Amino acid sequence: MFISKSCSYGIRSVAYLSGYPQGRYVPIRDISSDLNISYHFLTKILQMLTAANILISSRGAGGGVALAREAAAITLYDLIIAIDGDELFTGCLLRLPGCGTKTPCPMHQEWDVARGKVNHFCCHTSVTGLKQHMLLLAANPASDL
Amino acid sequence: MFISKSCSYGIRSVAYLSGYPQGRYVPIRDISSDLNISYHFLTKILQMLTAANILISSRGAGGGVALAREAAAITLYDLIIAIDGDELFTGCLLRLPGCGTKTPCPMHQEWDVARGKVNHFCCHTSVTGLKQHMLLLAANPASDL
DNA sequence: CAAATAAAAGACTCTTTTATCTTAAATTAA
DNA sequence: TTAATTTAAGATAAAAGAGTCTTTTATTTG
Ligand code: SF4
Ligand code: SF4
Prior knowledge:
2 copies of one chain form a homodimer.
Chain A: H1 5-17, H2 28-35, H3 39-51, E1 55-58, E2 64-67, H4 76-84, H5 87-90, H6 108-123, H7 131-139
Antiparallel strand pairs in A: 1-2
Helix pairs in contact in A: 1-3, 1-4, 2-3
The complex binds iron/sulfur cluster (2 copies).
The structure holds a DNA duplex.
C-alpha cells in the first residue's frame, strides 16, 4: 500500500473539487455524500489539507472548502506529504529504524533510482481529469471497471 | 509506507538466514533475539514464508527454519507477495475500490510506468549482502547510520 | 520410553487507523 | 438578534495491525 486510506480520501476530495471553479466553496457534506466517505472523518482529513494551504475553508451558510490554488498546481506529492508525511518519499524501503543512509546497504542506490521514478511521477501529476472516473466508480461500486 | 512491519521482519529474517549455509536450520529464537523482534510474532510471520515455500522448517531439537533455496534466488518481490500480498504491485495507487483498469483514469498509464520500475527492482533484488548492515543497525539502535 | 527442544496453533492484549457521534465556534441571512 | 448553516474540535467506538502469552504437536537425544 503506497498511501493510507485517509490519503486516498483527501486525494479524491481534491479531484472532486477540481470540477468546480477555483475558490468556490463546496460543503464537505456534499463531497462526503457524493464520494461515499464518512462526513466527520472526511472533515478531519480536509482540515489537514487546509492546514497545508492546499484548501481554504469558510464556516457558515454558503461556506465549505475550496481549492486554494488551481487544481493543476496541486500534485499528488503535495497531498501525500500533507496527509501521510514524507515516509513514502524518503524513508527506508525495509523500514529499518535508524538507517540514515550514511552507510548505505547494498540495495540502497538502486532503490533510490526506482523510488525516484515514483517521486517524479507524484511531483508531476495533478488530479485534474480524475473526477469523472471517480464518480463513475462511486456510482458503480465493485463493478470492476 | 511500501511494506508492512511484518513484511520488514520477514525480509530481515531471510537476510539473516542468508548468512548461513542454505538448508541449515536456525532456531527462530536466535533470529528474534539477534534482530530484536518479538519471538512469537516472528514465528507467525515465518510460517507465512514456510507456507510460500521460501523457508523450510523443522520441529524439535536441532530444528528451526532454513532457506528453501539459495538466498540469491529469493527476491524482495517473493517476500512481499508472501507476506503483504500483491496489493503493492497491482492495486490502484489511489486505492479506489472497484477499479479494474478496464476504463483507466488519466494517470494510470504513467503510474504503471513508475510502478513498473519498483516492480522490476523488487523482482531483481535479493537480500544477500544485507546481513552485516542489519546487524550493525540492530546493535546501534537510533544511531542514524 | 522420558526429557528436552523447537515450530505450530490459539487466545488474548495493546496500539494505530478508521469511523461515528456530540458539542462548540464562526458565518450568513432573515 | 435570532435562526440556520457549516467548519472545528473533542470524545468514543470499531477494525486492523502489532505484540504477548499459553498450549499443543513434532522431533531429537539420552
Ligand atoms: S541503506 Fe538500505 S537499510 Fe538504509 S535506508 Fe537505504 S534501503 Fe534502508
Ligand atoms: S485507472 Fe486510475 S483509478 Fe483505476 S487503478 Fe489505475 S490509477 Fe487507480
